[in-house]
Amino acid sequence: MQKESIEHIYNPIPEDLFIRYSDKLEGQSFYHTHNGYELYFLVDGIVNYYIDQQCYRLDTKTIIVMRPGEYHRVEMLDNKIYKRFVINISSRYLEMHSTSHTNLRDCFNKRFNNKPPIVVLDNETAEELLTLYNSLMNIKKSADYGQDVATSSYVLLLLVKINLLFYNSKDSTAMPNVMPVLVNKTMSYIDAHLLETITLEELSDKLFYNGTYISRKFKAATGLSIQQYILRKRIYLAQNYLDEGKSVTESCMLSGFSDYSNFSKMFKKCIGISPKQYQQKVLNNSQPYMV
Questions:
Q1: Which domain of life is it from (predicted)?
Q2: Range of 119's domain?
Q3: What is the pLDDT of residues 88-99, one digit of tens each?
């Protein structure tokens, strides 16, 4: 496969809380991940929301949540309106504010009945959350005394309410996955053979489609080439090994890289720091620098 650029697949969130509202008419052209959890509130618009091997058609007044390491992208289906709130939250923040009785990570980590991480809101609940989000944005812009504490208070209240929404909707009908079947099968095959050499010819033989057609359909759904997807999966696997304390060389080999020099180069290009620097950062901060 031809070598391609892999930059911008990782979009780091440097703060414990990163809060924003946008009404710009633009989606995300390719799969990417963040170094933390994400709350996404679609206020108005219609989109296809891709998460790993799933794609969901979302309409106005919908909340979706993501864990670190989950690829995602948004495809706009209405070019007239697209309003959303997004909050990115670090693992450290959620752990610090969770208790033995209230684990704020549940809505992200527990997929009740294997359902997608999505809640469709009724009008009353949507208005309640919208009021909270707007208040949060106003406080965030303030420089007054107590701004930081008030911001955190509103975020925690939102997290409690959203966790309850997910828990109370666990028996509702699951939203259908509209990811193209061929793309889903391609991802499944790659995941099952990630440590092996995978070629378009091999994918063609296994999936019974022309390799160029598979590649084109894959990129149309993810915004990434198959090569980029495989590389990112391997880098993410290497991160997990480094998090566990394995050596850089061992992590390289266990992640499907046969050449250490290439591994170090690709890791730094994708993550922004070398594998050794990454491991030291994790050990010093006790906070995974998730890609």
A1: Bacteria
A2: 17-168
A3: 999 889 999 999
